[in-house]
C-alpha cells in the first residue's frame, strides 16, 4: 500500500500542502489536536509528509462527549497515516461553565483540551508546538468559540493559514486516499443539546446510543437533538422519506425509546449544522 507520504499532489493542492509543511517545519516536533474528522486527519497526514512520522504526535481528547465509534475510528485513521497517537482524558464536565452549555461551550471544551495537552503531552513528547485543524472556511463562521481557546494557547492553525477551505481539504483527503475522505462532519455529542440546557453524561449516552442505532439501520449521518423526552432526529434530505416509511418508523421509534427517550420526531428540515449556536447568536445559518 502506498503511504500518504508517497501519494502525489498536484497543482494548487500541492502548493497548499507545501505551505502547510513550511508552516509546520519550524514547529517540529509538533502535536496535532486530532479528532478523527477530515480536517484534523488531513492536517495529520500533511504533517507526517512534511516532518516524518517521528516528528508528529496525534493527540486525541477523550471524554463522554466523544462517541466510542469516533474514538475507534480516530485510532484507525492515525494508524493509516502512520502517526503515533496518544489519548488525554479531558475533564470539561467538571467546569460549571461547560455544563451550563452557553454558546461559548466549545471554548471551554477546547480550553480544557489544550490545557491537558500542555500539562500532560508537550513535555513528555518534547513537542515544540501544537496545531489543530481549523480550515479557512471555519475562520469566517461566528459559531466557533473554540478558535478563541486556540489563540489563547498559541495553537497553530496551518490549514487556515494556507488558505485551505473545506472543499480543498476534502480534495486532499481524496487524493491521499484517507479512509474518511467522504465522512460527514461529526460534531461532538454535546452539540446535540440545546444551549442553556445542562450537558450531562446520561444525556450524552442517550444521544450516542440512539445515533449508533440509526447508523446500524443505514443512516450514515444523523443528529439526535436532545429535547428532554423528545429525540429530534435530523437526517440528510435524501434519507427523510425512508425514515418515515412504514417499514422504518417503528424501528426508529423502538431504537430511540430504547436509548431512554419517550418520543422520536424526524425534523423535516434535515441536517442543520450549527443550529443551536447560530440561533443563539441570532445570525443566519449556513
What does this structure look like?
By secondary structure, the chain is an alpha/beta fold. It has 2 domains: 165 residues, 3-Layer(aba) Sandwich (Rossmann fold), CATH 3.40.50; 93 residues, Alpha-Beta Plaits. 46% of the residues lie in helices and 12% in strands. The strands form 2 sheets. A 4-stranded parallel beta sheet has the order 3-2-1-4. It has a 3-stranded mixed beta sheet with strand order 5-6-7, with helices on one face. Helix 5 runs parallel beside helix 7. The protein starts with 10 loop residues before the first helix and ends in a 5-residue tail after the last helix.
Question: Can you give me a brief rundown of this structure?
Answer:
The protein has 286 residues and is of the alpha/beta class.
- Termini separation comes to 38 Å
The helix fraction, in percent, is: 40-55%
Remind me, CATH topology of the largest domain?
Rossmann fold
Content-based structural category: alpha/beta
Second CATH tier, the architecture of the largest domain:
3-Layer(aba) Sandwich
Q: Give the CATH level 1 class of the largest domain.
A: Alpha Beta
Report the total helices: 13
- Helix and strand sequence: HEHEHEHHHEHHHHEEHHEH
**Strands ordered across the widest β-sheet:** 3-2-1-4
Bin the strand percentage: 5-15%
**How does the major sheet shape up?**
4 strands, parallel
User: How large, in whole angstroms, is the Cα Rg?
Assistant: 19 Å
Uncertain parts: none
Shape: globular
Amino acid at each position: 500500500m502506498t503511504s500518504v507520504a508517497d501519494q502525489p499532489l498536484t497543482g494548487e493542492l500541492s502548493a497548499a500542502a507545501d505551505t502547510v509543511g513550511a508552516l509546520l517545519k519550524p514547529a517540529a516536533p509538533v502535536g496535532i489536536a486530532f479528532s478523527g474528522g477530515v480536517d484534523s486527519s488531513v492536517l495529520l497526514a500533511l504533517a507526517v509528509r512534511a516532518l516524518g512520522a517521528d516528528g508528529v504526535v496525534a493527540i486525541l481528547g477523550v471524554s463522554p462527549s466523544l462517541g466510542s465509534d469516533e474514538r475507534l475510528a480516530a485510532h484507525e485513521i492515525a494508524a493509516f497515516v502512520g502517526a503515533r497517537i496518544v489519548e488525554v482524558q479531558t475533564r470539561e464536565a467538571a467546569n460549571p461553565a461547560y455544563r451550563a452549555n452557553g454558546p461559548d461551550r466549545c471554548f471551554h471544551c477546547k480550553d480544557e483540551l489544550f490545557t491537558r495537552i500542555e500539562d500532560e503531552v508537550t513535555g513528555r513528547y518534547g513537542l515544540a508546538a501544537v496545531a489543530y485543524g481549523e480550515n479557512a472556511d471555519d475562520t469566517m463562521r461566528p459559531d466557533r468559540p473554540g478558535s478563541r481557546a486556540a489563540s489563547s494557547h498559541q495553537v497553530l492553525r496551518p490549514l487556515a493559514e494556507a488558505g485551505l477551505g473545506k472543499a480543498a481539504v476534502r480534495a486532499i483527503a481524496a487524493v491521499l486516499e484517507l479512509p474518511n475522505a467522504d465522512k460527514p462532519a461529526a460534531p461532538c455529542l454535546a452539540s446535540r443539546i440545546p444551549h442553556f440546557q445542562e450537558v450531562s453524561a446520561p444525556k450524552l449516552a442517550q444521544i450516542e446510543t440512539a445515533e449508533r442505532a440509526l447508523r446500524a439501520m443505514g443512516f450514515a449521518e444523523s443528529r439526535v437533538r436532545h429535547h428532554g423526552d423528545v429525540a429530534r432526529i435530523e437526517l440528510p434530505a435524501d434519507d427523510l422519506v425512508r425514515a418515515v416509511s412504514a417499514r422504518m418508523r417503528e424501528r426508529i421509534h423502538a431504537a430511540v425509546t430504547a436509548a431512554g427517550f419517550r418520543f422520536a420526531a424526524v425534523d423535516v428540515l434535515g441536517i442543520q449544522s450549527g443550529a443551536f449556536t447560530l440561533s443563539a447568536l441570532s445570525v443566519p445559518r449556513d
